[in-house]
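Message: A physicist's question: would you kindly supply an amino acid chain plus fold tokens?
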Amino acid sequence: MKLAVTGKGGVGKTTFCALLSHALIKKGHKVLLIDADPDMNLATVIGIPEETKITPIVELKELIAERTGVEPGKPAPLFKMNPRVDDIPDRFCVSHNGMKLIVMGTIRSGGGGCACPENAFLKSLLSYLVVATDEWVILDMEAGIEHLGRGTAIGVDCMIVVVEPNRTSIETADRIKRLAGEIGIKRVLLVGNKTETKEEREYLSKHTEGHEIIGFLDISDGIRNLSRTGGSFEDPGGRSMQQVDLILEQLTAVGAAK
């Protein structure tokens, strides 16, 4: 399946991506992770050593210029909207413990959301990774809803919105579901994160009518400790992986029903 993971800032999207990836690897699946979050923390969370060199795709200025038909560093009113990208995964993916990671990076110039060679290249690469690969693809997206306006998640099988048991997180999920439908993403699923009590799980279930919740991840001392120490989330301890396995079962059922 091809999954896009999103939600309000700080809800635990990247942690969920890492846990789900480890669960898939343990079951023998191939996994491609795409870090499309401007914070670019996914490499750390899945346990890639700090000294490993990872080049964000957006920093490949000369390659992007060549593929889009512009001159590096110069204004580009005209450029190729569908540049060649099929060789990029093999050249720039980083492999770690059976999974592959590619980091997209962030356009830092003013008007970064507008049409420009860098955005055209990133969108073409995302589309290729989502459509042309024969593995599980997990896209760790930026927080909020702006990315949906740019259509960068088109082509995924479903979008997973990570929510906390509070009103603002649920409001963001409502907006994401509406905008996802407008760009053709028909399946939007919720994962409740950082739940601590039965009451908090019930709160999410009650206040997310119209959404499909596929599971909950309780607050975990193991995950808290890993967040502080920078260790790998492969084995966070506690019930976390058991709960992720249950979520994976639900996702597999969704995939089988497509």
